[in-house]
Specification:
alpha+beta
Length: 315
């Protein structure tokens, strides 16, 4: 009889969790459905680079690649809370192949050799349409969207360049971390203790396969990203596919040990990341499958204004 009661309570809990997820998704989609399709603007950055690089938006690491030769498009919307001025920064790092011969230095020729052989970065605005062949209705004006890159005057350990982006056409406004606590004002040891405790909680949930409890921690993140991406992957948020993906970590989570605490977004976001080596800038929450496959379960935390507790707000 006790077992029957336990399973009934478990099933009820799972149903309630699913209903809560669906309710949050429904609320987000109500916002999206009020936005006309022609105003569902997505901003993105396209990078052509033959060297490793890191890409930052408003002091948040949003993309990184630590090998040579990469062409990649990164959507900015998940990290854009509202219209206004935003800062984009790229950090070029020494090429992998020349790392030792140049003593870890980036050569100006790694970035720019001649007009038709150089790195490019484009800031583009897309009108997304899942029914369109390319996924958007407008053509990208690469000629008019290129951001000018100035190579370093001499060999350097790395090279950074910044641009101010004028974001005007977002049809939404998100709270995100805009009103969150300034974590730099906290005692550093106490901050680290709280963040590590939160990460340990996530690690244990993943390791024990408690997927529903784990997903509860990211409900606010999901809700905001659904709005920012106009519900593009809506079905995935409550799908069994997503849960099966998380279950890959069950029994395979690595100890939380090789990490550094990193603050982002004017000290309003915090994460634990691998500081160096092959998995540099991966989340410190990592799992290793029986076949040796490494996976990282990245999250960025914030502490809402006046709250004592951390909350997942982005990945």
């Amino acid at each position: 009889m006790k077992n029957i009661t336990f399973y009934l309570l478990l099933i009820t809990s799972l149903i309630n969790c699913q209903k809560k997820e669906q309710a949050n998704n429904t609320k987000a989609m109500e916002i999206v459905n009020k936005i006309p399709s022609e105003k569902r603007i997505t901003y993105a950055v396209h990078v052509n680079a033959l060297t490793p690089y890191e890409l930052y938006l408003d002091d948040i690491l949003i993309d990184r690649f630590y090998e040579d030769n990469m062409n990649n498009t990164t959507e900015l919307n998940p990290y854009l809370l509202e219209n206004g001025k935003h800062k984009l920064k790229i950090r070029y790092l020494p090429t992998v192949n020349d790392m030792f011969s140049k003593k870890g230095l980036l050569d100006p020729r790694d970035i720019y050799t001649r007009e038709d052989s150089r790195w490019h970065i484009f800031f583009v605005k897309l009108n997304k349409d899942p029914n369109a062949v390319l996924g958007y209705t407008n053509e990208i004006d690469y000629g008019g969207s290129e951001l000018k890159i100035i190579p370093p005057p001499s060999q350097v350990p790395y090279w950074e360049q910044e641009w101010e982006l004028d974001i005007k056409d977002l049809p939404y406004k998100l709270k995100g971390w805009s009103e969150s606590e300034d974590l730099s004002k906290m005692d550093k040891d106490q901050l680290r203790k709280e963040v590590v405790t939160f990460f340990e909680q996530q690690r244990n949930l993943l390791n024990e396969g408690k997927v529903n409890d784990y997903l509860k921690l990211g409900i606010k993140k999901d809700e905001e990203v659904i709005v920012a991406t106009y519900g593009e992957d809506l079905e995935y948020y409550t799908s069994q596919e997503r849960k099966d993906n998380l279950l890959r970590a069950k029994g395979h989570m690595l100890p939380l040990e090789n990490y550094e605490m990193v603050l982002y977004a004017g000290d309003k976001l915090v994460s634990l990341e691998v500081p160096n080596g092959k998995y540099r800038r991966w989340s410190a929450l990592m799992s290793k499958s029986d076949k040796g496959r490494m996976s990282a379960w990245g999250v960025k935390l914030h502490k809402p204004k006046g709250s004592k507790d951390f909350e997942i707000i982005r990945k």
